[in-house]
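Dear support,

I submitted the protein below through the web form. The confirmation email said the job was done, but the results page showed an empty box. After a refresh the structure appeared. I'm attaching both so you can tell me whether what I see now is the final result or a partial one.
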Amino acid sequence: MKKYCLLLILLLLSLYKDSYGFEITGLQPIAPYGVFSTFSAESLSRGKAAFSAGVEMAIEPDFYRFLFKTAYGITDDLEFNMTVPYIHKWTDTKDGGEDIAFGIKHRFFDEGKYGPSIAYILNVSIPSGRDEFSTDGRFGGGLVISKRVGPVNGHANLFYEKAGTGKVHNEVSFAAGLDFAAAHNFKILAELYGKKSHYSKKLDFLEGRVGYRIKTTDSIYTTLGAGFDLKNRSPEYRIIFSVTFSSPPGKKKIDKVYEEE
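What the results page shows now:
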């Protein structure tokens, strides 16, 4: 009898982890205006657009996450963002999309000689995903602070999100990241990302991430990185890869001055 009770408890725990323990993506930054999950206060200029396609390979639990992101510069300091995640799990057939996330990032304070640039983000996720990867939508906002010191850009984010269902907790997340310009077209990336997720009342996710980003052309950015768990939670580690295509930069018009001899 004790044996069957133990098996029943283990089964219930595994079902609980699958239903409520899955990490939800939410809104994500698009290169080069961010690190991995850390937003930069910088944004696309007015009328410019960007599109990104990427994949995360996670271990324990084992799954692929495909990420499709886009952004559009409404003005020079106001940007629209959208993130569409899709999950493919290795160990079973529970594939499906997560909730689609939309957001507006507004930079209301530009960087000065000593002060940082500051922006806020308002975001909402519509309940469009599979039940295992969804919280029935959510909404929230966050603060983004960025500062450049020589070849290093540093960024800090703090977000609060309210879940669309009362069965789970609200989320609080923070991120601190930097990118170091090692060369004209090459940046080294580092990030610390933590979260009190929708299935916990305390910090239950902490991950360190490192990688690099190559500016292949004026319009293409390739990012490769790895994340390592720092709190004995899942996933244990992940590989991150993405390619971003953006509108080509506008050419500056040069007025020529001719002097009469």
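Response: this is the final, complete result; the empty box was a page-load delay. DSSP finds one helix and 13 strands in the chain.
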